[in-house]
Design goal:
single chain; 6 helices; alpha/beta; 7 strands; 208 residues
Amino acid sequence: MTKHNEFFFTRLQYESGDWDVDQRMPSNVLNSLVEYTTLKIDSQEKIVLLADEEIFNCPFCYLSGHKLVEFTKEEEANFKRYIENGGFVFVDDCNHDIDGLFAKSFEIQMERTFGKSELKKIPNDHALYSSFFEFENGPPTTSQELNGWGDDIVHDYLKAIEVKNRIGVLYSNKDYGCEWDYDFRNKRWYKIDNTKFSVNIVMYALTS
């Protein structure tokens, strides 16, 4: 059971798509939080239905997939209320493709939920990029982008929906989930720890 003062990673389960992707990623992110921060961590990923009231007990949520994103009325209402009341959702496109089904359908869903043009590019000097580690050039590039998968574009920005000058929905076409989807014990073989940006995302969500 999670103690009240422990951080836990929440994955959102939604009805329309393949939400259960990159299954090793959460433990890798949690390991980085243990390694670099003083947060108390619950090492067990939690899966919460988007339509469930339990979402309002979650300080940080993750939503991803490859396929259609089309919220039910209950999911849409919960998502909107959660964000407008200070919640944080990191949304990551597993297709790393702005013309893919996930990207197109998610952006349409955000327009339907929050209004047209509310999902906007954020500048690369945003507080997100200095919330823990410094990323002077904005979001780090993923190997999927460099290898020309997906839309064959290196995205030099992330998008967000902000509420009261704070990011509530952080949206990536870069496929960080796949980038971080490996056993954390293999991290020692990496010349540069590519999970450091995940620490920024979580710390921004908790402290902004």
